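User: I've been going back and forth on whether these two constructs are worth ordering. Before I decide, could you fold them both?

Assistant: Sure. I'll take them in the order you sent them. The first construct and its structure tokens:
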Amino acid sequence: MEIRGLSKAFGGVQALNRVSFGIHAGEVHALCGENGAGKSTLIKILAGIIRPDEGEVGFDGRPLAFGDVRRAEAAGVAVIHQESVAFAHLNAVDNLFVGRECCRFRGVLDRHAMARQAREILGRLGEDIDLNQPLEHLPLAQRQMVAIARALLARCRLLVMDEPTASLSAKESKVLFRQIETLRESGVGILYVSHRLQEIFQLADRVTVLRDGCWVSTDPCCDLDETTLIRRMVGREIAARSTARGKGPQEEGPRLTVRGLSRAPMFSDVSLDVYPGEIVGLGGLVGAGRSEVARCLFGLDDFDQGSIELNGVPHPGGSVAASCASGMALVPEDRQHEGLIQTFSIGDNLTLPWLQRFTRRGVLRRSALKTLVTRAIKRLDVRLQSTSDPVSSLSGGNQQKVVLGKWLAGKPSMLILDEPTRGVDVGAKEEVYTLIRELAGEGVGILFISSDLPELIRLSHRILVMSEGKIRGELSGAAMGEEAVLRLALPVGNGQGVD
């Protein structure tokens, strides 16, 4: 594929400005840049979702049709988007084959053939998914694996992968990397977008950097180091990565006390404490029960047995309103469906939980709301054109900042963060880390869930590791290593070693 002079503007924002580079057959070509650099806009043009204002794309010597998803797919372009575009109410088989169904005769669907192929392709990815289960009932990671399987089924010649491992565990990521190597060997070109720089250096042959919608550089990966790549992405030096972890537990009682919490069949007998100023990591493989525990703590789901105390006061289950009123906040794993209302404006998303606070005798105090929005945007450095724009107009990383910002406005005493840096660029990630440490320094208790082991180890005072719905152990100090976390995270008695 040869990309020549692509430009695209949305209103007064120039998302792409005369971008040009090429992708070879059998090459993993990384595309790097901060949130808002233009990566997602470029991907949508290649996928046929939007049309550029100018420029052209040649694919195998022929022009690629713009603004037509079916023609892009027919030409051999498959895209795995950062945010799932699956049909949540349909099962895995229907999602894999929608628009390309297998038929026997007279349009009758061959469901047996589709189910067989679905099991085969998901098996290659190491997934054993209930094929009759609607995707909305599956964990986010399994939904992502279904999207990956759909792209592999397309037998494409160019595969575009936008943050494919953002919601995957280390184990699932390794399976995906093996598939990427197989595709590369078969001559498929791969455009790979990731904010996890270790993946870039592990997989990529060449790296193209975009900044503020403009092409910056294209180089062989072997000619770059992490410092140089980051400098090109952000256009400035990033401060040295601190390993300081805030105050740690205080002498006062815990912010959060959980005893014997269970919700069959998701998890059982979960007990933990989080103290003021403490960052407690919750590690484990995807499906271990971490997000399910977070949902029960916040009141999104009921639990079967056990108890929760917040700041020493018994806390009821199944009530989000009670959690908010008591000073608990949750940044969910799935920001697209659970963290934001995509059709609402940026300002409305930031203020939605606190409207009652800013209402007097049935009248909204709009000036106070505007001040709240301004402060949140400034503190989190959200890149936007107008607070009245829909939140869907923001890049993934800036959307994540809005999810964080809406809860920080309420000054919580207990904050649950479920994959808070998913899809966030390296510069913004450091800003989120700094913010987490600042909140801990102010006495906020933080339960921190992450599948990024270096991140989990770097930020946490101690780590609780879950496996098969149970807490298998606690690590602290020098014992908090990646291998130690993985050994506890692996299912009991599976006989596996740690790669």
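The second construct, handled the same way:
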Amino acid sequence: MIKKQKRALVCGAGGFIGSHLVKSLKKDGYWVRGVDLKYPEFSTTDADDFLIADLRDYDSCKKSLTGSIDEVYQLAADMGGAGFVFTGENDFDIMHNSSIINLHMIKLCNKMSISKIFYSSSACMYPEHNQMDPLNPKCSEDSAYPANPDSEYGWEKLFSERLYLAAHRNYKLDVRVARFHNIFGPEGTWTGGREKAPAALCRKIAEASDGGAIEIWGSGKQTRSFLFIDDCVEAVRRLMESDFLGPVNIGSEEMVTIDELAKMIIGISGKKISLKHIDGPVGVQGRNSDNALIKEKLSWEPRGSLREGLVETYPWIRKQAEKISVIPPQKKMMESREVRS
């Protein structure tokens, strides 16, 4: 008997995690459709079909789900690093754009009898009051309530989690919900204001002169953990293959200060660079993934260390920065004008 080929839809397939997820699904024999506002920026897509579409539009969502889709991976969102999320300037767009995508996808998945849907939430939904001590943050899944996220991005993620779980209760939609903790790696956003800490620091260090200095937002004592992209994709795939709905953390328990992260990257670069602390958006003082639940339910833990992931990421970002540095000034000015227009 010939086994039926599984068909998956990856929403946000032009983004960092989505493009890596498409590659993983294809390696396992899936037929994959990707959908996004844009193609992947740094490599060609491996998707069998790629739809350029705005998922805030109901008809575009409907079109993306046609053709007997078995699994949906909903990663599409309006997101970015601290420089995008914590300024307050993007709050409405973040909440509106992401919420409407999830509302459309849930309604249509139920209407079109889609078998299973994964939703990517975020550690940003955890209460701010549990993350004020940089050395003792509390981010176990059961600590989500009483709710008090530190940003509107976190509030939207929490709302959408409840939306998916309500759809499971009321409509029997087979959902999986995971809370990502700072995913990084090659082919991720590394400049432009939406990049996260590992990529931003890799860029600053790559662009800095040996013997120079880079700027760090805040005291540098705020703590985080960072998960390499390959480990993230493996955890998502394992969650989808399980019977566990979540929500569950997908992250690393290797917590470091931002200064320690910067010094680790400096060591990899081989340069001598000092740190200059300045005012800037930093979010909560401490955050670290609590992996007790995912170990219990899925027997999963990261394969590699933070340093091992940075050893792969830093050279990639350095090459991107070097490419930009050799663009003639006149061409740079023209590209800048095109972006603003």
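Notes on the second construct follow. The radius of gyration is 20 Å. The first helix runs from residue 16 to 27.
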